[in-house]
Write a structure and sequence with these properties.
Blueprint (H helix, E strand, L loop, with lengths): L1 H31 L15 E3 L18 E11 L2 E11 L5 E8 L4 H11 L15 E4 L5 H16 L3
Antiparallel strand pairs: 1-5, 2-3, 3-4
């Protein structure tokens, strides 16, 4: 009986080695072939602008004509300290280009006031001169939550400015 068990141990060892090799190869492949998408305007840096992209599964259509003028809206977001808001005013051209922008901080807490202040001092170059359809801020000067409020206000302005 001893002799008959020896080939079984060898066979089990070979099967275990094969399974481990397949798992290792799969992990290597997964790490080296992960699907990353670079979109114009995205950055690996802390301050980023994500470009809104039309998804073929999305029922909304991209607005291409606007009523030129100045628009304002208040954007809301949740911070660890509670609900916060920012007031956004933009001057919009008929083709959707943001000609100027102003953000008024309306934060209630000290921490949110600091993040909103940092946002206000650094966001403008990511917005002015760009088409409103393409702007979606994700992090500005370390502030990602203020960006949510800004984007909320910008979405409202986009709807208000439809031509």
């Amino acid at each position: 009986m001893e002799q008959g068990q020896q080939p079984n141990k060898v066979l089990i060892g070979i099967v275990v080695a094969a399974v481990l090799s397949i798992l290792a190869a799969g992990a290597w492949y997964s790490m080296n072939n992960s699907s990353t998408t670079n979109v114009v305007g995205m950055s690996a840096q802390p301050d980023t602008v994500n470009m809104k992209m039309n998804n073929s599964n999305d029922d909304t259509t991209k607005i291409t004509t606007f009523i030129a003028g100045e628009y304002s809206a208040t954007g809301f977001y949740q911070s660890p300290g509670g609900s916060e808001e920012v007031r956004v005013t933009v001057t919009l051209a008929a083709d959707g280009t943001i000609e100027s922008s102003q953000v008024t901080p309306l934060a209630a807490s000290g921490t949110s006031q600091q993040y909103q202040s940092d946002f206000v001092n650094n966001y403008e170059s990511m917005v002015v001169g760009r088409n409103i359809n393409e702007v979606e801020l994700s992090r500005v000067a370390g502030s990602s939550l203020t960006s949510i409020g800004f984007n909320d206000a910008l979405d409202q302005i986009t709807e208000d400015a439809k031509g």
